Amino acid sequence: MTFDSHQLWGGAQKGPAPQWRLAAQWVPPPQAQPWAPWLLEPASLTQRLRQHLPPVQVRPVFEGLLAPHPTENTVLGLEQDPGPTAWVREVQLLGAGQPRLWARTVIPHWSTHNPWSQVQTLGQQPLGELLFVWPDIVRGPLHVAHTPMGWARYCVYHRHQAPLLLAEVFLPSLLQP
Ligand code: VNL
Question: Cα of 154 to ligand 1 centre, how many Å?
């Protein structure tokens, strides 16, 4: 399966848009129970994946400037159609040699002065871990939803007022070691 931001955020005739809920108010339905510890993991997901399915590898699939999806603009509190100024990073996370998660990072108002500018040079280094070691990072509330690609979560991080949106999609293979 390929990563498709429309399946994550809705639109483009892909059926009903995912219903995002605040994780803090979410009561996992029975079919979500096995995913709940992953969806609600408060610490590093990289760390959790490394414990369950080592080794962890990051495979960048796309890195470049794109116009964010309209829902991403809404989540980031941006005007619609701000132009192709967001840095977008899409990666596959492999555990024990198999793809287990997708992650899409969107950083609007991209410039070399953006506090997140180092994300451009990450390559195969996991962003997930840096978010827990860089100073001055403020984490927004976690949201969860079921999407056509699988269960997913997103969170907006801020560093010196600049937002970074990270969405993570959990593939069925995560529970099938
Ligand atoms: C990335 C994003 C890595 C989210 C992650 O864990 C993660 C990345 C390794 O873009 O590198 O949970």
Answer: 12
The pair phi, psi for residue 56, each rounded to 5°, is -100, 130
Token code pair at residue 5:
């931001």
Q: What is the pLDDT of residues 135-159, one digit of tens each?
A: 899 999 999 999 989 999 999 999 9
Contacts of 150 (CB under 8 A, 6+ apart): 169, 170, 171, 172
- DSSP summary character for residue 14: S
Answer yes or no: are the C-beta atoms of 11 and 151 closer than 8 Å.
no
Instruction: Please tell me if the CB atom of residue 89 comes closer than 6 angstroms to any atom of ligand 1.
Output: yes
Q: Which residue out of 41, 57, 59, 93 has the highest number of ligand 1 atoms within 8 Å of its CB and is therefore the one to mutate?
A: 93
pTM: 0.95
